[in-house]
Write a structure and sequence with these properties.
Elements: E1 4-10, H1 17-20, H2 22-34, E2 36-45, E3 55-59, E4 62-69, H3 71-90, H4 101-118, E5 127-131, H5 138-144, E6 150-154, H6 162-165, H7 171-178, E7 183-186, H8 189-203, E8 206-207, E9 212-215, E10 218-224, H9 231-236, H10 241-254, E11 258-263, H11 272-285, E12 293-298, H12 307-327, E13 335-338, H13 344-352, E14 356-359, H14 368-375, E15 384-388, H15 393-396, E16 401-403, H16 408-419, H17 423-439, H18 442-453
Parallel strand pairs: 1-2, 1-5, 2-4, 5-6, 6-7, 7-10, 11-12, 11-14, 12-13, 14-15, 15-16
Antiparallel strand pairs: 3-4, 8-9, 9-10
Bound molecules: GDP-alpha-D-glucose.
GDP-alpha-D-glucose binds near residues 343 and 344.
Pathway: Glycan biosynthesis; trehalose biosynthesis
Family: Belongs to the glycosyltransferase 20 family.
Subunit structure: Homotetramer.
Length: about 450
């Protein structure tokens, strides 16, 4: 068996994977098992960019291989096509998508250069596993250079219905190049079905079996592989010194009051303003919660170089200020809005000391916060997960309280129901969800994908 080559925009780390999250843990695990290379962007912008020297860092049988981007690559490929065009479209936000020809050209150029740099690393028998929307066209470029090995692709974010994706200029070319992969993985059946619908409606494709599709003269596997977390590992974090410290800090200020928690990168896909309004509605419609229930929102900023992200930050600051101004009392602040990140073990402590997690993305490939919250609960006194129907996680975690994040009244009612939920019901919902996330964990996800990729 040849080695495994993983490709993703950001690479690593090989050590301290616990700090980085479940994905890095799972990928390093499978890389260690068969030996391999993790290839991608160094995170640096330099003059030479993708034509510069490849940095290589080896630890036993696993190597990180990275290249820089130059300024134009970064602007056009990363900040441009990936995050100003594809991210909004794939999250159903046609209103925010920017269609700019130089972005698209930059995307193709960087994919081509990545392919050029990757090709010499590939030996006979190797398999290549490419991650996410930055690299839809990478396999097409590799095939054009004569690479014949098995290449798989996993999309971490949603694939929208054909009505949305067809608004992307030259969408056919993009999807055609995806068919150069041998296995195309999605987070949920919903996303997989959208992709198949697209192929049938727009490309004369046909299904040739449960997980196989023929289109553009190719036959490929198209399947949902819902991503997991290291649930066992994460369930231990609240008991770590850092986890306990955070829980105690929260308990000291809450006393017998209840806390709702939200944790998200600041991103317009996460529905954070909708969440704030639903919490406000809870205080309006069920006034007994005033002074009794608070919302803790942890929101580390991301992609702050993009206007849409600055706008959402401002909107959230404004909204939190307005709601706090309206309802706060001298000894109670309704919303604690913290715009920075916490270490993972600290997060676990925050999850554990919160009666409810309110996870309300307007669209999300999976949403790992939902799974982390469940993993962090005390089995004897677990909290309640209130989860958007538009998160991929809702397909699996159907014992959560599922809501439509656009329906403020419904979310407020569900919060009230969750606050009053008896222990028996909390336990039975928690146990069902915990079993699923322990079974379908990150390791199993990676192994399952690779079993299809190995053919
Ligand atoms: C994409 C897809 C899909 C958040 N705040 C802090 C922090 N985080 C961590 C969370 C979680 C991760 O970041 C976020 O993962 P999500 O899944 O919620 O969302 P995206 O970043 O949008 O991820 C998503 C995922 O890829 C995997 O396939 O599920 O749908 O959009 O692990 O805990 N981590 C730390 N401090 C923070 O303050 N340490």
């Amino acid at each position: 068996m040849g080695k495994l080559i993983v490709v993703s925009n950001r690479v690593g780390p090989l050590k301290d994977t616990g700090k980085a999250g479940g994905l890095a843990v799972a990928l390093v695990d499978v890389l260690r098992e068969r030996g391999g290379v993790w290839f991608g962007w160094s995170g640096q912008v330099s003059e030479e960019g993708t034509f510069g020297e490849m940095k290589r860092q080896k630890s036993r049988n696993v190597e990180l291989a990275t290249v820089d981007m130059n300024k134009a690559d970064y602007e056009e490929f990363y900040a441009g096509y990936a995050n100003r065009t594809l991210w909004p479209i794939l999250h159903y936000r046609l209103d925010l998508a920017e269609f700019d020809r130089p972005y698209e050209q930059g995307y193709r150029r960087v994919n081509e250069r990545f392919a050029t740099r990757l090709k010499p690393l590939i030996e006979p028998g190797d398999v290549v596993w490419v991650h996410d929307y930055h690299f839809f066209t990478l396999a097409g470029q590799l095939r054009a250079m004569g690479v014949e090995c098995r290449i798989g692709f996993f999309l971490h974010i949603p694939f929208p219905s054909p009505d949305i994706i067809t608004a992307l200029p030259r969408h056919t070319a993009l999807v055609r190049s995806m068919l150069a992969y041998d296995v195309i993985g999605f987070q949920s059946n919903r996303d997989r079905n959208h992709f198949i619908e697209y192929l049938i409606q727009e490309a004369g494709g046909e299904r040739v079996g449960e997980d196989r599709v023929r289109a553009f003269g190719r036959e490929v596997v198209v399947k949902a592989f819902p991503i997991g977390i290291d649930a066992e590992g994460f369930s231990q974090f609240p008991k770590s010194p850092e986890g306990r410290r955070q829980s105690q800090r929260i308990k000291a200020i809450l006393g017998d009051r209840a806390q709702i928690v939200g944790v998200d990168r600041v991103d317009y896909s996460k529905g954070i303003p909708h969440r704030f309004r639903a919490f406000e509605r809870l205080l309006e419609d069920y006034p007994e919660n005033r002074g009794r229930v608070s919302l803790l929102q942890v929101a580390p900023p991301s992609r702050s170089e993009l206007d849409a992200y600055v706008d959402i930050q401002r909107e959230l600051e404004h909204l939190a200020g307005q709601i706090n101004g309206r309802f706060a009392d001298v000894d109670w602040t309704p919303i604690r809005f913290i715009m920075r990140g916490f270490p993972r073990k600290a997060l676990a402590g925050l999850y554990r000391s919160s009666r409810i997690a309110l996870v309300t993305p307007l669209r999300d490939g999976m949403n790992l916060v939902a799974k982390e919250y469940v993993a962090a609960q005390d089995p004897e006194d677990p909290g309640v997960l209130v989860l958007s129907r538009f998160a991929g996680a809702a397909e699996e975690l159907n014992e959560s309280v599922i809501v439509n994040p656009y329906d403020t009244e419904e979310v407020a009612g569900s919060l009230q129901m969750a606050l009053q939920m008896p222990l028996d019901e909390r336990k039975s919902r928690y146990e069902a969800m915990f079993n699923k996330i322990v079974t379908n964990d990150a390791k199993r996800w990676a192994e399952s994908f690779l079993s299809y990729l190995s053919g």
